Amino acid sequence: MNNRTFLLCLDRLRRGPCPLSVPSDTLIVPMGVRELQMETPNRCPARRLLLSGDEAVALAALDAGMHLGTGYPGTPSTEILEAFAALGGHAQWAPNEKVALEVSIGVAFAGGRALATMKHVGLNVAADPLFTVAYTGVTGALVIVSADDPGMASSQNEQDNRRYAVAAGVPMFEPADSQEAYDFTLRSIDVSERWGLPVLLRITTRVCHSKSVVITPGYPAPPPRAPAFECNIAARVMIPAYARPAHRRLRRKLAEIARWNESEGPTVMIEGDAALGVIATGICYQHVREALPHSSVCKPGMTYPLPIERMREFAARVGRCLVVEEGDPYLADAARAAGIAVEAAPEAFRFGELNVARVRRIAARDQSPEPQPSAGKPPELCPSCPHRAVFTALRNLDCIVAGDIGCYSLGVLPPFEAMDTLVCMGAALGVGLGMRHVLPPEQARRVVSVIGDSTFVHSGITGLVEMVYNPPPTGHVVLILDNGTTAMTGMQEHPGTGRTLDHQHTGKYVFEDVARAMGIRRVHVTDPTLEPAAFETLIKACLDSGKLELIIARRDCLLAAGAIRKYEKANEQPH
Ligand SMILES: Cc1ncc(C[n+]2csc(CCOP(=O)(O)OP(=O)(O)O)c2C)c(N)n1
What is the pTM of this model? Predict the structure, then answer.
């Protein structure tokens, strides 16, 4: 059975257009990945499961025999690789998203199936290889998950990564629930292998984290080919002479995929009230079904290239054609550019997530002020978090703090209010150096760059290279907050912990050794919680020295410390 026949069989297993409307006599197994783990090696019986979107992607990856899953943690994508590993898949954390994508490209060049997972801003880091792998194409399958966070539940911006699919020329699927997260992962593999292109699986917070029913087909998906190297220099070495035809090749493939999407793509059409038709994708489709149950609906599953002719026919069949989407007016712009008369939500709905109430407002053209959600309890550093000692010292010394992203970002809030900038992962070093270069000396001498251990590995190291290469006249002080884990996203390992995703012993990236090897002579390793006054004195001395100073504040995260001890002990046992 080939991939496409498998997908057809999968379709036949479904009952009704909305997987959430499972008939009442249907047994739903409320099973999470933990229970599924018990089922191996017969991984693929017909099952009805209750899974989150992230778990569904992981299960599909497993069922499809994905050779490798790699990524960098980031809400709401983190659980995909964790679930994939828990199910028995080969999963690993990369130092950052760019490396994760590059490793995946290597797997797919070698004819294997690869899954690269990241949050939306992670795709910015991985954008360089993304744009060019669209030209090279792949021999096996490459599925790139972009988990977007409209509403910024846990992010520094709410960029809409559907734009990346268009800009890079990468086909894109958008699941609306866990069933589609499972199905579209398989479809992504199919499209990737059929056209030899990377495929984006764009998924948003609510789909990632909500649980809904998943039906699996009852037999394993067609097995992947065994990876083997085939030389194809013109396809994979993107010097201009080979890249020019590669770009033309990409556009031809995208035109073919567009035709396929019109005729065979996973577009759901619901014939309802002809007076109101709604075009919606992803989680917005679920909100529309609840808010406007009688409306006609057009839900493209592949959203790049769009099934624009099907959208045109749909719009022509209904009186009023409304586009309901979170984030940018991506669908509305595409429809209008194609001459389809659609109505888009007013600008106010571009901000934050949509929900059923907001969709009702959009449909009613209600532009009255929206009720403000009640202010919740502001987040704060845990009691006894080692970061507290650091921010107490920085506040007492009145430092100008170029900050970064992690639990320690909470140093910006009371009672510390000791962070002055936060842009993106790794920016603490460059931003701090920039300020040092131009501020008057008395201010420049107060500037400190503060960065977490996982963040330093992700993208801080090149900032340290910059510091050594272009040192400011007043020197600089960098603080690495080494709490032995990636705390913010749920305690993931990283190269600095010396343990793999599943907590096994591996090669360790030692911050102080790397810094010394780079020529930084003044490296201080200390526990900031042991003697807070001495720690503060150390920072003051570093600020006053006018040299390049690196302080590694090392103390395990309180919430991770017990587990870290357990992993280390287990790793000491002879295997
Ligand atoms: C490009 C990018 N990838 C991932 C994330 C999600 N994220 C934010 S901070 C962070 C790492 C935090 O770990 P660490 O630097 O060790 O600080 P801690 O939370 O442990 O204090 C991650 C993975 C992000 N914001 N941006």
Answer: 0.93
